[in-house]
Amino acid sequence: NTFSCQDIGFTIPVTLNVTDANGNVFSASIPVSVQDNLPPQIFSLDTLTVQLNASGVVVISQPNLTINSVDNCIQTQTSISKSLFQCSDIGAQNITLLSTDNNTNSASKLVEIVTQDSINPTIATLLTYTLYLNNSGSASLFTSDLQTNTSDNCAIVSTSLNNTLFTCANVGVPQIVLATTADSSGNTASASTVVTVADNIPPSFSINSPFTVTLDIVTGQATLSTSDII
């Protein structure tokens, strides 16, 4: 007798006939139970690289993995152990594909998912900024002085300036300062600000007071210079 997937779950009586050399026949009925114990086969990508979107997430589905499952009878379901990936998943990790047929036979396969973030952060700075020197003739510039806003789909890890220390030599000469921000994946963005260095501290001095001037005995005059009183 021939059996197929349609016979699974049924007990089918099979008649066995035995005939000897003299033509005597013996018959017996044997109940046959048809079972399917073969698991399906899963075919898919071994590795899939996905990119996070502007919201810092990405969702994968079976078509992304080009899944094809083959079974000797009828396959009923293929599932993915994880389909949502976000910033905390950046890097490589394995997910499990599980395929189950109508007869509860199952097979699984590991697929490596590489999650990446290739979206640059954004940064906004002031267009111009005036920096005033201190009593020592110097001034330090900080990112908080120029930065107005930064954002990223994941996380900003650093913001730096290409020039932070200014002196009297920079007074009156506009300085273009570049602010650069970086996210956790090494993506960067920059913005520039024109920095004007100014000195608004008046000079200070002390005088010799009172100061006595002695007139010349011949001319009746005397000369006074700044060095005499400062």
pLDDT averaged residue by residue: 92
Rounded to the nearest angstrom, the distance between the terminal CA atoms is: 125 Å
Care to count the β-strands?
18
Percent helix range: under 10%
Catalogue the unreliable spans: none
The total count of helices amounts to: 2
Query: For the CA atoms, what is the radius of gyration?
Result: 43 Å
Strand order within the widest sheet? 4-10-9-7
The geometry reads as rod-shaped
Compact overview of the structure:
The protein has helices at 143-146, 226-229, and strands at residues 11-19, 25-33, 41-43, 47-51, 57-59, 68-70, 75-80, 84-86, 91-101, 106-116, 122-125, 128-132, 138-140, 147-151, 156-161, 165-167, 175-183, 188-198. With 230 residues, it is mostly beta strands.
Task: Explain what the structure shows.
The chain is mainly beta. The protein is built from 2 helices and 18 strands. The chain has helices spanning 143-146, 226-229; strands at residues 11-19, 25-33, 41-43, 47-51, 57-59, 68-70, 75-80, 84-86, 91-101, 106-116, 122-125, 128-132, 138-140, 147-151, 156-161, 165-167, 175-183, 188-198. The strands form 7 sheets. It has a 4-stranded mixed sheet, with no helix packed on it. The chain has a 4-stranded mixed sheet with strand order 12-18-17-15. Strand 9 and strand 10 (106-116) form a beta hairpin. The longest helix has 4 residues, at 143-146. The chain is rod-shaped, with a radius of gyration of 43 Å. It starts with 10 loop residues before the first strand and ends with a helix. The model has no long low-confidence stretch (mean pLDDT 92).
